[in-house]
Write a structure and sequence with these properties.
single chain; alpha+beta; 3 helices; 27% helix; 31% strand
C-alpha cells in the first residue's frame, strides 16, 4: 500500500480484502459539501485498525481527524457524522480555512 492515498484507489475492494483477512475496518464517506471542498460527495476512505488508509475524503486537510474517529468507531462499534467547516474552530486546526464545509460519515464495517 502507498504511504500517501491516491484518489483512484479501489476503496471498497480494499475493505473487502481487509475484512476477508479478519481485520477491522471503518469506512468514511463524504456526504455533504458546501463552498470550497477538496473532494466531492461520495468520496471514500477506508481505515484499518493500525491506521492504514486507502482513498481520500479531503486531499489530506481533515484526514487525520477522520482517521482518529474511524479508529474510535472500530473500538466502540458506533457510526458518527463529522462536521468540518470555516465557522468551526476545528476548521483552522485541520486546514479547512478556505471557505468550505464538509460532512463525513464514518462507520465500522462488519
Amino acid at each position: 500500500m502507498n504511504a500517501l492515498p491516491t484518489y483512484d484507489d479501489d476503496v471498497l475492494g480494499k475493505v473487502q480484502e481487509w475484512r476477508g483477512a479478519g481485520r477491522k475496518v471503518a469506512l468514511a464517506t463524504v456526504v455533504t459539501t458546501w463552498g470550497s471542498s477538496p473532494r466531492p460527495v461520495g468520496s471514500q476512505m477506508a481505515v484499518g485498525p493500525d491506521g492504514a488508509m486507502i482513498g481520500s475524503v479531503s486531499g489530506g486537510c481533515i484526514e487525520g481527524a477522520v482517521v482518529k474517529e474511524a479508529l474510535d468507531a472500530m473500538k466502540d462499534g458506533k457510526p458518527r457524522l463529522l462536521d468540518f467547516g470555516v465557522t468551526d474552530e476545528q476548521a483552522w486546526d485541520v486546514g479547512l480555512a478556505c471557505g468550505g464545509k464538509v460532512q463525513v460519515f464514518v462507520e465500522p464495517v462488519d
